[in-house]
Write a structure and sequence with these properties.
The chain is α/β, with parallel strands linked by helices. The chain folds into two domains: 3-128 and 276-297, 3-Layer(aba) Sandwich (Rossmann fold), CATH 3.40.50.2300; 130-273 and 307-327, Rossmann fold, CATH 3.40.50. The protein is built from eleven helices and twelve strands. The protein has helices spanning 3-21, 36-52, 67-79, 96-104, 130-145, 162-174, 204-217, 229-241, 257-264, 276-293, 321-327; strands at 25-30, 55-60, 84-87, 108-112, 124-127, 152-156, 194-199, 223-226, 249-254, 270-273, 299-302, 306-309. The strands form two sheets. It has a six-stranded parallel beta sheet, with helices on both faces. A six-stranded mixed beta sheet has the order 7-6-8-9-10-12, sandwiched between helices. Strand 9, helix 9 (257-264) and strand 10 (270-273) form a beta-alpha-beta unit.
């Protein structure tokens, strides 16, 4: 063998060995650090990182929508040597320049739970099929209403967010109403029966205020779609204060332990449960694989969704409250 070729081969093997032995550094950036959904996501990432021998760096925005905080976190993680960053983007468009900058430095970026706009801005997405989550609760609500004409309030996230749009539009689709398709980030608002639409930012207090305003607009509301279970809890407070809690069906998305308990208590009729621990564990595993082999994941991976209901409806596939509690996240 040519001496130069031999030395080159030895050097390549040595470098490959060093690369493989270096502890992979993976970053996780969530929207907030207090939401039980993101707490469970962090737990999933930590457990998988420990299992696979990776170093995990964690950061979060101050509030949902804090893009600047997420940008700073991403820059800090790249500087700290992260070669994979997992992120639940607060602003699907505004975060993209920071993602592109990280990618140019050899970092693989995976979105968890929430897609970017466009989704192709990241290397991969591990998330709930949020449109399907909306369809499931829409189908449930339609059967639960029976022969009643739907008078609907939608308590949404905030304008332009893909997750908010997909859940909202999926709900309308499940109800059999006119709805944009799963790729649209615009809320369908002209569907027959939608009496009120309001933003809640996924917050309980804002959900209560939104429901109060919707009741003032139309006191005959008999069905409430909510972006998540905290917003649903707020809506219930407003309905109870107005003496209408027994006359209105509330459906939601998340599957946190508190939300599932509220399904059992009759506060929420049904919720679509998603699995943040699974998303994070898959993201960390993909990051470790990239560190070892240089192979990137790509495209969308559905991490699953299950309809949880205390009272099953004919023709609608659902699981009971105990199943929801067995799989929920947050304080049981």
């Amino acid at each position: 063998m040519n001496k130069a070729i031999f030395l080159s081969s030895v050097l390549a093997l040595a470098m490959g060995s060093v690369f493989a032995q270096t502890q992979p550094v993976i970053g996780l950036i969530t929207k907030t650090e207090s939401n039980p959904f993101f707490v469970k996501m962090k737990e999933g990432a930590e457990a998988e990182a420990k299992k696979l021998g990776a170093k995990l760096i964690v950061a979060a925005g101050k509030t949902d929508g804090d893009n600047a905080g997420q940008v700073t976190a991403m820059e800090n993680m790249v500087a700290a040597g992260a070669k994979t960053i997992l992120i639940t983007p607060s602003d699907a468009k505004a975060i993209i320049p920071a993602i592109k900058k990280a990618q140019r430095q050899g970092v693989m970026v995976i979105a968890l739970d929430s897609p970017t706009d466009p989704p192709s801005a990241v290397d991969a997405l591990f998330a709930t099929d949020n449109y399907k989550a909306g369809v499931l609760i829409g189908q449930y609500a339609k059967v639960a209403l029976g022969q009643k004409k739907p008078v609907i309030a939608t308590l949404d996230l905030f304008p332009g967010h893909p997750v908010g749009a997909q859940r909202h539009n999926g709900f309308l689709k499940g109800m059999g109403l006119n709805a944009p398709d799963a790729k649209s980030n615009e809320l369908g608002g002209k569907a027959a029966g939608v009496a009120c639409m309001a933003d809640t930012y996924g917050d309980m207090a804002k959900g209560q205020t939104a429901m109060e305003n919707c009741l003032q607009k139309n006191p005959d509301i008999n069905l409430v779609y909510t972006i998540n279970e905290p917003a649903a809890a707020g809506a219930y407070k407003a309905l109870k204060a107005a003496g209408k809690e027994k006359d209105v069906i509330i459906v939601s998305v998340d599957g946190g332990c508190e939300g599932v308990k509220n399904v059992g208590a009759g506060i929420i009729a049904a919720t679509s449960q998603q699995y943040p621990l699974r998303m994070a564990a898959m993201g960390v595993a993909a990051g470790v694989e990239y560190a070892k082999t240089g192979k990137k994941v790509s495209g969308y991976t559905d991490t699953g969704v299950t309809l949880i209901a205390a009272k099953p409806m004919p023709g609608v596939d659902s699981k009971d409250v105990q199943t929801g509690l067995d799989l929920c996240w947050g304080n049981k």
